[in-house]
Design brief:
- By secondary structure, this protein is of the alpha+beta class.
- It has a single domain, classed as Arc Repressor Mutant, subunit A (Orthogonal Bundle), CATH 1.10.10.
- It has helices at about 30-40, 40-55, 60-65, 70-80, and strands at about 5-15, 15-20, 25-30, 85-90, 95-100, 105-110.
- It has a 4-stranded mixed sheet, with no helix packed on it. The protein has a two-stranded antiparallel ribbon with strand order 4-5.
- Helix 3 crosses helix 4.
- It is elongated, with a radius of gyration of 15 Å.
Length: about 110
């Protein structure tokens, strides 16, 4: 039986703004508009591609998605920051690549006011 990996995060009001808390890390969070950016169609496509096509690098991911590398990299940084993925360093043909890996099966977001 495969164990589901669940990550819990907290959005907490602090002095008139929301703070995103992931483990011991805290980030300023601009509210629902920021959450919508994290949950965009393009980010969903990235997660789906990582999960089912297992690209060997961010470059390979951008080629699979037929999107510019910079745009994919920007999205990857957001997904990594919010705890959906991790980048694993791997040596491929003498070069170091960063392979995106999904680290959660489920994310629970709590809003605390």
């Amino acid at each position: 039986m495969v164990k589901t990996k669940i990550r819990e995060v907290l959005l907490k009001e602090s002095e008139g703004s929301f703070i995103f808390i992931k483990g011991k890390e805290k980030y300023n969070f601009d509210g629902i508009s920021s959450l919508k950016k994290v949950l965009s169609k393009e980010k969903a496509r990235i997660l789906d591609t990582i999960k089912y096509k297992n690209p060997s690098s961010i470059y390979a991911l951008s080629k699979t998605l037929k999107r510019p590398f910079k745009a994919v990299m920007d999205d990857i940084k957001i997904l990594e920051r919010f705890g959906f993925i991790e980048l694993v360093k791997e040596k491929v043909n003498g070069r170091t690549c960063h392979k995106p890996i999904i680290v959660v099966d489920e994310m629970v977001i709590h809003f605390k006011i």
